[in-house]
Design brief:
By secondary structure, this protein is an alpha+beta fold. The protein is about 55% helix and about 10% strand. The chain has 2 domains: about 1-175, Transcription factor LuxR-like, autoinducer-binding domain (Beta-Lactamase, 2-Layer Sandwich); about 190-240, Arc Repressor Mutant, subunit A (Orthogonal Bundle). It is built from 11 helices and 5 strands, in the order H-H-E-E-H-H-E-H-H-E-E-H-H-H-H-H. The longest helix is centred in the middle third of the chain and has 28 residues, at about 150-175.
């Protein structure tokens, strides 16, 4: 129990997403899950998961699997992704075989299942996290080691499932508190200008506060919008906020 509390404490005290992720990978490997795929979007639409570039995607899967599942869009038809979009809690991958035998999977979903099996994803669990916002959705897929089958995984879950879910929830909550930009990081000046605008200041106000010309302030705002792929300043403020790029603590 003391070691488990220590693991939770280490994740809680982590100061970067990279640190949280490495700690989480180590803990899940101890339970027998050696390949993980975590995804968190704050921009989920009614019929899609939004732009993946605005999502937090963390994984230690091989590059070929990432290329197929994410870059080629297979995730849009993954049965466990479909389940996670509609439910919260933990779900055994054993249900996939049942869904397939019942005929409840589409042709594209069956294609994803077959691709996963070819690439060694034959046993595991998916955890979908409870969110307080209808546009937010997060889940993690835990693939078991290739020497384990689903029956082995069910035994692991019966013994340690509550611990795994608790560790996963703490890791998820910590990840959502930390800055994540994945190539869309604002410069210090872009962040500063956006923060003042978010506080209700006009570009003229910001120019006076920072000792800049109004044209320079507008240039920083334009580049911030470009960096965040935002259509306007209001959307840039929203994206910077939900990515925790505002009021960050150095280091």
């Amino acid at each position: 129990m003391k070691n488990f509390v220590g693991q939770l404490t280490a994740i809680t005290n982590a100061r970067s997403i990279e640190e949280v992720w490495l700690l989480y990978l180590e803990r899940m490997a101890d339970y027998g899950f050696d390949r993980l795929l975590y995804g968190y979007t704050r921009f989920m639409g009614q019929h899609n998961f939004g732009d993946l570039r605005d999502a937090v995607i963390l994984t230690n899967h091989e590059q070929e699997y990432i290329r197929l599942f994410l870059d080629e869009g297979f995730y849009n038809h993954g049965p466990m992704i479909r389940w996670a979009a509609r439910h919260t809690g933990a779900c055994s991958w054993g249900k996939i075989e049942r869904w397939q035998s019942e005929g409840s999977l589409s042709e594209k979903e069956i294609e994803v299942v077959e691709m996963n099996r070819r690439m060694g994803l034959h046993a595991g669990y998916t955890i979908s996290f409870e969110e307080g916002n209808t546009r937010c959705r997060a889940a993690v897929g835990l693939r078991a080691r290739t020497d384990l089958n689903q029956e082995d995984v069910e035994l692991i879950w019966a013994a340690s499932g509550d611990e795994i879910v608790l560790l996963s929830n703490v890791a998820h909550m910590r990840i959502t508190q930390l800055p994540y930009s994945e190539g869309r990081k604002l410069t210090e000046r872009q962040r500063e200008v956006l923060q003042w605008v978010a506080d209700g200041k006009t570009t003229q106000d910001v120019a006076c506060l920072l000792g800049l010309t109004q044209a320079t302030v507008e240039k920083h705002l334009r580049r911030a919008r470009e960096a965040l792929d935002a259509e306007n300043t209001a959307q840039a403020i929203l994206k910077a906020s939900v990515q925790n790029q505002f009021f960050t603590i150095p280091g």
